[in-house]
Please model this.
Amino acid sequence: MPVSKLALGMNARNYLYIRPNNRRGAKKRADNKLLTKRRLVKNDVPTPKLIAQFHAHREVRSFDWSSLKGSFVLKPARGYGGSGITVVRDWNGTEGRRLGGGHPITLEELEAEIFSIIDGAYSLDNLPDLAFLEARVTVAASMRKLAKRGVPDLRIIVYNKVPIMAMLRLPTSYSHGKANLHQGAMGIGIDMRTGITTKSVLYGEEEEFIPGTKTKVRGIKIPRWNKVLKIAVAAQECSRLGFAGIDIVLDEERGPLVLETNARPGLQIQLANGDSLRTRLERIEGMSIPSADYGIELARRLFAESALTEIPDTEHILNVIEKVTIVGPNGKKVVQAKIDTGAYSTSVDESLVHELGLEEHDETKRIRSGVGEELRSTVKFVMRIRGKDIETVASYTDRAHMTYPMIVGRCDIKGFLVDPAKAPDEAF
Model:
């Protein structure tokens, strides 16, 4: 059938995909986070642990708050857009601290928050609501390093057991720790085959770097990508929604966990991926999808970015700190080098130049560093990264006071992707 190249609009989303595929009961259940959680648990789909639920004020007053220790999250069952959610840490039975600013919260203030939820202050229709407490997610280190505050999550659009499109929602200083694009979070598109990020959108504009950093949005590898896709499809199936947005967070200990399902997922995911949801949906229209594995494999084949189709899962993905072999006339030496996508060219410590007898080069390079701009001499040599020999012209200077004797600039890592989440002590 002909495939539309137009972006999916709200009216088309509602009439072509939500109305025929999402029944009223399923939508009502998806709008209720507590009902969703019960169904996920019943179907063995991993989700944060439920601690307590409150239907009436008297249940709040009679709850044994001294039995609750550490961290937890308070949520309205039918809240929307992150409203009414309170993350509490360091709870000692009578008081704790709010996540994001560290402001204190007393038992009286916490009970008042719950009363507001029960009274419907945050519900979709302003009607009385239910409040519940769930275990706080410990964000995986690989994701935590990308956001200074807040919880990054993944939004996967799933249609009839096929993951159609995905993005990483990254809290920023603009969003005050919220992973909501309308509030200033960054949406970063993800290649469906590899789980590698591609491009991003912030306030509707494409960005090359994560705000406030030199980390490029392109080339971040999402951990346990295949499991993420399997859990997303499992959540869509058990929700009974034919067309759903599944929100997943990566927990340090438990791995991917489903936060909620969305019966009316937003459409900014198209901007983050630079592609049309409608085009992808029409490509699978009318197909019989026998299983989740079949749907995932179909998505990998149909919705892979052409520039990433030849990239293996790990061989061409570099850590921030890598073992690099430098080859010179006096032999070769393996050093720990920092892969610095913020630097254009490679630089080495002058002691390596003398030790290995590296060949002086006529070219000089103007380098900007923390002490200003300077003109440096260069050397020409071969370095080996992940089994690949790379001929480079690198500047050299005294790096004895620095952590690493070498930085590798982006001009020498063409064909590689860099995972910025790997800390130095994880790279070896």
Notes: The chain has three domains: 10-29+140-308, 49-135, 317-419.
